[in-house]
Predict the 3D structure of the following.
Amino acid sequence: MEAAEQPLAPFVRDLRRHAALADEDIAAIASLPVRLRKLDPGQYIIREGDAPTHCCILVEGYVIRQKLTGEGARQIMALCIPGDGIDFQNIFLDVSDHAVQSLTAATVADIPRDELQDLVLKNAAIGAAVLQATLVEASILREWVVNVGRRDARARIAHVLCEFAVRLEARGLATDHSFELPMTQEQLADATGLTSVHVNRVLKGLEAEGLIWRRRRNIQFVDWRALQQVGDFSRAYLHIPAEDHVPVRGLIDAPDFG
Amino acid sequence: MEAAEQPLAPFVRDLRRHAALADEDIAAIASLPVRLRKLDPGQYIIREGDAPTHCCILVEGYVIRQKLTGEGARQIMALCIPGDGIDFQNIFLDVSDHAVQSLTAATVADIPRDELQDLVLKNAAIGAAVLQATLVEASILREWVVNVGRRDARARIAHVLCEFAVRLEARGLATDHSFELPMTQEQLADATGLTSVHVNRVLKGLEAEGLIWRRRRNIQFVDWRALQQVGDFSRAYLHIPAEDHVPVRGLIDAPDFG
DNA sequence: CGTACGTTTGATCTTTCTCAATAATGGTGG
DNA sequence: CCACCATTATTGAGAAAGATCAAACGTACG
């Protein structure tokens, strides 16, 4: 059930899609001391205020970034999928400014923080690759601000669904037009700045309109075009490179930004 | 009125606060071909969808990052102050995913993008410094998501005021407890995901409660402690290094994350 | 001195939240 | 395999924060 041979393979593949890495750079990454760790659902990988000792990469399962307000409300601001770096945020910052928690059972690859620091400080190409991954994540974060700040509930939820599906497909993790949403409606509410009650009503509405079909957590896109429209979704901000692509499954079609 | 000698000085100073840069690294940055450019208020530095040719650093004035939704609503997701890198987002990404627009008259230092790419790809220390600056920006972005997603209007606005003041002070750009907000109420609304009408009422309320005092765009913090409380503000996420500090002026006091 | 932009205010409307209860669902121990 | 429990999902009714619409007021500036 787990990629035992090359747990970092999806991560490295993604790095290479964005940045030019020589074989020796890859070898340097491969020679990092990696320890795999299994997580139960809901387990914290790091909490706000913690001093990180490891940087980890998500190998399997799903994980979120979140913060709590003083009033105890939770805001989820990122959803990590297998192959994502989880802890680069903390590679050079000494105190974590947010928490990372597993949504499902998950496997992460731990890399000692100082080892990774050394590598990045010695190898400019790898540093640049990490920078690029970070820039893409920042872009997704900016779109998340837009989503939560300026779209209505229907669009917010549709947008999250679209984004998640496209990112999964880009990593080859979803078959076309269907996937398992690894979140409860309450978590989806925390991701969109809504309440779970309202999320429920909106999902029901999207289903009634014939845009999606759902059974339990499984969601299928009945009308992908329309859902994109409703969610004001355009994949440009994901900065998914076109070349060296995983097989196109249907969701990924026309380029944006005409 | 302009730092003609060392336009990049505040930027480099900030980089050094986070990262260890040797004198030769500094020299390498200083030898980059920099061209100063003056901007009128409201001018675009880059638009969504543009292919960036330069990376620029804000020398003087204020600048925002923004995106538009399909319905034409605007969301501001970052406020840049002098010394901030504006275009590192685009150093390795070929299409800008958001727009950058000046709020006030401003001066930016343009650096050709490929020169900066070369430098970062050759010099790991500089690459790491840029990465760190990017990580701090991402942290601010995450807090922005929380602000817009989970705080009520009063807290959102108070939070933006607090953040802006603390960042200005950290760069030595504000005298204690008073500054000029470089935004109209409409822009503040676009930053907080509200309408300008409601922003107006909230500001009025904050003033009536004796938390702030304002005259035109100038805002003074009458009760800094209380405003922080109202805005659920805690400066930890700004990752402002404690050592080698600009003179403390009053706003920056106790460490957070107890 | 008039025009444009930004601010302020009032009245009304809508989306979304809150509170509260009920129904599914999945997992667990017997 | 079944009863029970804890989550999670669903539904309804009422409340509230914030949006919308519309107008008046200031102030800067050409």
